Amino acid sequence: MEIQVESDAPPRANVDVRPWPRYFARMIDVFVFSFVAIFVVVIYLELLQADTERVDRLLGLFEGLGGTVLSNVISPIVAIPPIALLLASGQTPGKWLFGIRVRTREGRRMGFVLALRREATIYVRGLGLGLPLVTLYTMATSFGDLSNNGITRWDRSLGLEVHHAPATWFWWVRAIFGGAIVVALMFAGTIGTFTSL
């Protein structure tokens, strides 16, 4: 079902906005592309036969509570270019799993530059730069904006619409699977943070 809200239009009743699937889709994309980036960097360092002591010191930055905060700031930044590239050409893994498509108001795919602008705006206005308290505030205000107006501020300002696949049994199977992955990864990350303190 598509969302068609003009920038100055009042909120529309019965708009299918689905904030939680959108959140889970984003987290899956951030996890996937962050993991790929870390894997590529580790392989690159191995190929260079980099000083293992220096690599261990670098990886040590991501341990404990400070490492979790640093990871929350860096992971979404690393994910911005590949997410934008995939949005410009089709769908990301998270958006596919939850049946989400982002299109222009004319129904066309975004170009890479527009997709990059959207991702950078979401990093600042939606994820609050990954900073713990700022993130809580920006996510709460974005959730309220989406729930009340049927569209986020960044999609409204960029002239974009979010389309959701019908909530069929197959959609529910994918959504439950995707949601379970996100919850499990967050739980594992929390446990890892506290056990390393």
UniProtKB/TrEMBL annotation:
Where is the protein situated, by its record's location annotation? Membrane
Short name of any one Pfam family annotated for the protein: RDD
What transmembrane ranges does the database entry give?
Answer: 27-45, 65-88, 122-140, 169-194
Query: Which coarse location class describes where this protein primarily resides?
Result: membrane
Q: Can you name a GO cellular component term? A: membrane
Q: How does it sit in the membrane?
A: Multi-pass membrane protein
Provide the organism lineage as a comma list.
Bacteria, Pseudomonadati, Pseudomonadota, Gammaproteobacteria, Lysobacterales
What InterPro entries does its record include?
RDD
| RDD domain span | 19-138
State the UniProt keywords alphabetically.
Answer: Membrane, Transmembrane, Transmembrane helix
Q: Looking at the keywords, is Transmembrane helix present? A: yes
Q: Which organism is it from?
A: Luteimonas viscosa
Q: What is this protein called?
A: RDD family protein
Please verify whether the record's keywords include Iron-sulfur.
Answer: no
> Which top-rank group of organisms is this from?
Bacteria
